[in-house]
Amino acid sequence: MKKVLIFSLAVSLIGCKAQQSRDIGDANPMEYANTITAGELKEHLYTFASDEFQGRDTGEPGQKMAAEYLKTEYKKLDIASPFGEDDYYQEIPGSYFTRGEIKDTENVLAYIKGSSNPEEVLVISSHYDHVGVDAEGNIFNGADDDGSGTVAILEIAEAFKKAQADGYTPKRSILFLNVTGEEKGLVGSKFYSENPVFPLANTVANLNIDMIGRIGEGMESAGDYVYLIGSDRLSTELHEISEEVNKKYMNLNLDYTFNEENDPNRFYYRSDHYHFAKHDIPIIFYFNGVHEDYHRPTDTPDKIEYDLLEKRAKLIFLTAWEIANRETRPFVDKPTLTEAAE
Length: 342
Ligand SMILES: [Zn+2]
Fold this sequence. Notes:
Layout: H1 2-18, H2 29-33, H3 38-48, H4 61-76, E1 89-92, E2 105-112, E3 117-127, H5 143-165, E4 172-179, H6 187-194, E5 203-209, E6 225-229, H7 236-250, E7 253-255, H8 274-277, E8 283-287, H9 306-325
Parallel strand pairs: 3-4, 3-5, 5-8, 6-7
Antiparallel strand pairs: 1-2, 2-4, 6-8
Helix pairs in contact: 3-5, 3-9, 5-9, 7-9
Bound molecules: zinc ion.
Zinc ion binds at residues 127, 145-146, 182, 210-211.
């Protein structure tokens, strides 16, 4: 038995070595996108948005459970933390919050180091906190907001990791950023942008996911759609990448209604990507629009459209793949900061 074990260990070590650094250009990203499945998204979400997590209110025990869940999943996937060792948390003191009495909380970070341009980082983000429990004891499960984005990131991370196991490490680094405190005013992402683990100057783009598991109001006959917000605001190139990837692989109906500069909803300013965009880091915000269960106890996992969630998550993975692996980072041709002109 021992001999057999040693032998198979040796074989697997040789196997690993043979898989190191293959040419990323030879990979078929769709093969890895296909590891993102409705079944796995559903399995994660029925746990992550269960009553046990008590609405994941920032600083409360339910949020801590959610953080622990994410950390455990990243460790299972063998995806490291940028802090090294067992530390996946970026601590945020309760005193950092300006609204209400909030206890200490944490962003959860995981990371795949790039092969040829490791100093350049693509951030894929979503918030894992929600609004907790109301005075009557109703639990706000937040399955769509933003359980959907959170489980999508877990599946996207797994897809990148599987590619890496086959020898296809992305050229640029990828940071999976699960932020806390979004519902308290985008606080986790604000904290990250003020305490970036990787220099913002080297942060090439942010793909932010907040609510991608439902069909929004008025979109019942829109087919397989997703709202994209912000893709062309700073970088025409990022917008073109996003369009081309969709055309090549997924053919979703990309809806830009909420990207209009004068849209009264101002969604461009209302989720975590904004703390990257304000530093002239190009972003895309993926969103399904609001619906009748938005910020209500009825935002539950049984109402999620898992096949559509899968398609949207695949699109985000494939877009991330392209950004991480193309020759140059997306060019910022429409900077808003004067410093960006230097
Ligand atoms: Zn949200």
